[in-house]
């Protein structure tokens, strides 16, 4: 039984598209979307707007009121086209969600694709020329009772909505259960969990003098998962640092945690030095590494593991570093959070817990043990760590002046 058979029972998702260039949508007869239509998972219907004109020239546009360049699409053909779509095979009088591509619309994202993929019926209105008479949007909302969303494919200008609809129908259609054979592959895709994809390779293992990374030939799935996770983090930090901004709606609503970049080094060094000074006052441990750490040391530290910084209104207020440590026999690897530091004026608040929570959340699949290596916490901090499930590891800590706590990953 194919994935499609397993889902054939559920009613097909209906997608209507209205355009003056219906042939533009022909690619939706191909590949996965085409197969999903044959399998009855998607019911895609394309309509020619000119079929809803009544003059010899099948006119759909006219000059803009108020003057200006270009032409505007007339409301009447759109009204009749929408009436037709709503009347077609719709005994229950259901109402589609009308999606109108436009350069000024809300950004089309994977999150929006996921949302729209849950809907039973979408209708897409492909504009051309300068766009569609504004009264069509009001008519659809107020007279036809449709939810209307203006959605943009991206910050560049196209000549019409067709290309956008091609992309949207593919991005939405492939999320419909049964359309993609192994839904598993959906999980680790770019933009699915906010990280870009890891590099991929296939045979031969040696090509043009270039080797496939040995870890991928090792059969060690834990190590492969770790390598892939780190590749995803590194690529995202390099190509799309904006995606690494995970905002936390806490009391510090504007607390932003992001992957540290070389630009953060000066502030990070100052923060660590400030926190170390505090520790020395409390513990007298003058041999705290952070006291002797140079800017180059801090910069170099960004190359290994993953350092996260927390900012409030642009001010760097905290940081933490994560690395993977190979576990002793049977415990499997552990995910180590260390160098957790919070600006002295914010210690005891939620910056620390948020950073630790974020560090834990970046642990790759397969990690069972979360480790926290920190300088001797005060009683309150220790209580909070214990409340979070951490227990003191009575083994000597790898870094002098620090203690190690650990907990099982839930
Ligand atoms: C729909 C008409 C052309 C747009 C005058 C060029 C989406 N990301 C996107 N860029 N452009 C569009 C888009 C463009 C469209 C229409 C979508 C209908 N045009 C117009 C305004 C300026 N011409 C889009 N999604």
UniProtKB/TrEMBL annotation:
Q: Which keywords accompany this UniProt record?
A: Cytoplasm, Methyltransferase, S-adenosyl-L-methionine, Transferase, tRNA processing
Known EC number: 2.1.1.228
Chief subcellular site? cytoplasm
The UniProt annotation places S-adenosyl-L-methionine binding at: 127, 153-158
Asked whether the keyword ATP-binding is assigned, the reply is no
Q: Which reaction does it catalyse?
A: guanosine(37) in tRNA + S-adenosyl-L-methionine = N(1)-methylguanosine(37) in tRNA + S-adenosyl-L-homocysteine + H(+)
- N-acetyltransferase domain: from which residue to which, for each copy? 255-410
The protein's location, in the record's own words, is:
Cytoplasm
Q: Which domain of life is it from?
A: Bacteria
The residues forming a coiled coil are none
Q: Does the keyword Cell membrane apply?
A: no
Name the job this protein performs: Specifically methylates guanosine-37 in various tRNAs.
On assembly, the entry states: Homodimer.
Q: Which family does it belong to?
A: Belongs to the RNA methyltransferase TrmD family.
Supply the HAMAP family for this chain.
TrmD
Name listed for the protein in its UniProt record:
tRNA (guanine-N(1)-)-methyltransferase
Species of origin reads: Terrabacter terrae
Q: What is the lineage of its organism?
A: Bacteria, Bacillati, Actinomycetota, Actinomycetes, Micrococcales
């Amino acid at each position: 039984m194919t994935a499609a058979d397993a889902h054939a029972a559920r009613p097909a998702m209906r997608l209507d598209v209205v355009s003056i260039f219906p042939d533009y949508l022909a690619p939706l007869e191909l590949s996965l979307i085409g197969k999903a239509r044959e399998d009855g998972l998607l019911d895609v219907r394309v309509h020619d707007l000119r079929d809803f004109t009544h003059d010899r020239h099948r006119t759909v546009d006219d000059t803009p009121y108020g003057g200006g360049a270009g032409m505007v699409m007339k409301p009447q053909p759109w009204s009749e086209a929408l009436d037709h779509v709503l009347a077609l095979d719709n005994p229950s009088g259901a109402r589609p969600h009308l999606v109108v591509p436009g350069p000024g619309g809300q950004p089309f994202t994977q999150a929006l694709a996921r949302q729209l993929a849950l809907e039973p019926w979408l209708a897409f209105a492909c504009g051309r020329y300068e766009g569609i008479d504004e009264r069509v949007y009001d008519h659809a909302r107020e007279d036809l009772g449709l939810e209307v969303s203006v959605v943009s494919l991206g910050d560049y200008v196209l000549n019409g909505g067709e290309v956008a609809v091609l992309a949207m129908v593919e991005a939405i259609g492939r999320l419909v259960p049964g359309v993609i054979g192994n839904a598993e592959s959906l999980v680790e895709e770019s933009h699915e969990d906010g990280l870009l994809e890891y590099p991929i390779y296939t045979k031969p293992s040696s090509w043009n003098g270039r080797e496939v990374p040995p870890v991928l030939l090792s059969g060690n799935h834990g190590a492969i998962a770790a390598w892939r996770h780190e590749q995803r983090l590194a690529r995202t930090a390099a190509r799309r640092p904006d995606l690494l901004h995970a905002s936390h709606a806490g009391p510090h609503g504007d607390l932003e945690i992001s992957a540290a970049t070389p630009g953060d080094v000066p502030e990070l060094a100052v923060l660590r030095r400030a926190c170390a000074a505090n520790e020395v006052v409390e513990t007298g441990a003058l041999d705290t590494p952070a006291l002797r750490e140079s800017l180059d040391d801090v910069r170099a530290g960004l190359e290994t593991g993953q350092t996260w910084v927390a900012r409030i209104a642009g001010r760097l207020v905290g940081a933490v570093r994560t690395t993977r440590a190979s576990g002793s026999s049977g415990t499997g690897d552990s995910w180590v959070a260390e160098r957790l530091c919070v600006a002295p004026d914010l210690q005891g608040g939620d910056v620390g817990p948020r950073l630790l929570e974020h560090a834990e959340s970046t642990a790759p699949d397969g990690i069972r043990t979360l480790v926290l290596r920190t300088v001797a916490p005060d009683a309150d901090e220790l209580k909070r760590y214990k409340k979070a499930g951490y227990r003191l590891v009575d083994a000597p800590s790898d870094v002098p002046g620090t203690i190690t706590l650990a907990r099982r990953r839930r």
